[in-house]
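Students often ask what a holo structure prediction actually looks like on paper. The answer is less mysterious than it sounds. You provide the chain, you provide the ligand, and the output is a string of discrete structure tokens encoding the 3D arrangement of the protein together with NAP.
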Amino acid sequence: MSAELLKGKPIADGMIEELKKEIENLKEKHKVTPSLASVLVEGDPASKSYAGRQQKSAAKVGIEYQLHELPSDISQQKLIDFIAEINKDDNVNGIILQMPLPDGIDSYRVQSTIAMKKDVEGITPANMGLIVYDRPRLCPCTALGAIKMVEASGVDIYGKDLTVVGRSAIVGRPAALLMLQRKYSATTTICHTGTAKSGKLPEHVGRADILIVAAGSPELVKGEWVKEGSVVVDVGFNWIDGKTVGDVEFEVAKERAAYITPVPGGVGPLTVAILLQNTVEATKWQME
Ligand code: NAP
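The corresponding structure tokens follow.
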């Protein structure tokens, strides 16, 4: 039997409706309108269009969005100084640093300077550290999106075998750590290129009741590896011959899994909704 599809858009739409109400409440009761500062170092057309989409989505829910375009030859120190300024600005509740940064700028150094309570992408060491301590506040948007997809399946996660393929700081690693929280208590395995080289990727995938794949490698996970009746969340987004392809061999996997995310239309639509939700959470955190 074919798997049930886990689609991101209906979940994102529900989140947006909730956010609108919360933002109205913040405006009425606290006289606060959440605002997002987006820092874009010029040079990458894709990140400019991504910022444009964020701006439209923010406007729809009533979040102010200020786009700060900085010259492509800006020095690392000047960029850090700019972030230090908006860290202090009471009219800014959230800060997004658009990626990629030009060559020669250490993105980790710059990201680390974002104030913890304004870190709406959940990428600072401070917010990552809170996940390790099982006290998450602002979490990386795509990792959280993957967790929301697993939740949307309605499957009981407690004690289940989870395999995450990919250990990047913004997706795989935080997704695995979030699933280790006591409230989920998944028994977690993280795979990477070392696992693939050892030849054990099929084995780790094959015993996963829940599988999250964020590798950036088209159809890396073969459908026949997927456990019967499992939940499969494919974060991968790859362009092949003008088509979007995930990291999981979808057509075969969907005949084995109980729930599976399509690509596109799975985790992707959730990312911006979570960014906006994080902005509201950040605003509330600053008021505590
Ligand atoms: P990344 O930084 O390149 O990390 C990829 C991870 O996958 C690494 O840990 C790498 O292992 C592992 N990996 C790569 N090839 C592998 C293989 N053949 N076997 C086993 N492990 C392998 O990528 P990312 O930023 O996490 O993104 C992952 C995917 O998610 C991409 O397709 C990206 O486009 C997509 N994505 C989607 C959204 C969205 O939908 N909104 C947002 C972000 C990312 P090593 O650590 O050993 O190198």
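The longest strand covers residues 35-41.
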